[in-house]
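Figure 2 data, in text form.
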Amino acid sequence: MKSFGEKVVIYGPAYPMNLTPLWVAHDKGFFREEGLDVTLEAVLGIPDAQHPRHKWRKVGKVVFASPGGSPMFRSVREKRGPEDSDINVISIADRTAHVFVAQPHIEDPSQLKGKRLGADRKGGSSIDATIVLRHFGVDPDDVTWVDSRGKPPDTERYRLSLFEKGELDAVCCDPPHWNVAVRMGGRRLTSARDLFALPEAGLSTTIDVIEQKPELVLAMVRATLRGAEFARLNQQETIDCVLRHQIHISHELAEIAWEEDHNDWGPVLDISAYERKVGIYTREWNLPEYPVAKYYRFDFLKQALCELKLLRSWDPAFDASDAKLAGVLAACAT
């Protein structure tokens, strides 16, 4: 097995349960077995302008974002260059993790018009909330958004603190945070994960990393797949791992969250789910009309599944999407 000399950083904005496959890959030594030196870094409660990913790159570290569900869309929205533009190289959940929880007097999302809603306005929670609002006939402009991005102690717990004080009518949170909101007396509402499949979580990295270090990216994808398989099939060891990383919940809440989420974990092999997600972000963030290949790369996933003997079926549409990638990358370089 090849050993990579570079140090790798995986960063995320909080401690959601959809990081579990990566926590498992780290703690069970799957990254190390793939020849990787990986550090997990939580980037909590700081403005984007102070984000440490730029400093890490300057000292030669290879940077991945997780959850990898929205960074690539944010890259396009912010018109970043190839050294800072993310592409998702693996999604490891087929349902969005965010769940709507409202104050107990609100019975369904149609009643949220004119209410105060807590979400990350540059992240997936606000998009997942928007999906549900539109489904229930509420214009997202008719709610008051309270942005939690970059707020201490982290984006999820900031929302929870306002919800507990009654300053928000609803929150859209990852597990186990939405479970905590229910414990505070909130009511779980219909959420995006209840409506249809969307690729979620996983890893994204930059165009430069993909072009310059493809073997390292492949090793990261292999280790992540191994972590997802283990996490899905091994409850108690996985819960122990969760509790080492998500230090703000009890064993009971970790068990509840695992029961609700573990069947989501694994490679997402439905091309229509990716097309749906690209369409949603394109509309809601008013992005240029780009193909799926602008945001997702599938060849690493296919090769890793083959090497791990986990590939049971493969839609040729994924290969067709990757065939467009050269043109997309060329456009990024101009």
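Caption note: The chain has a mean pLDDT of 93.
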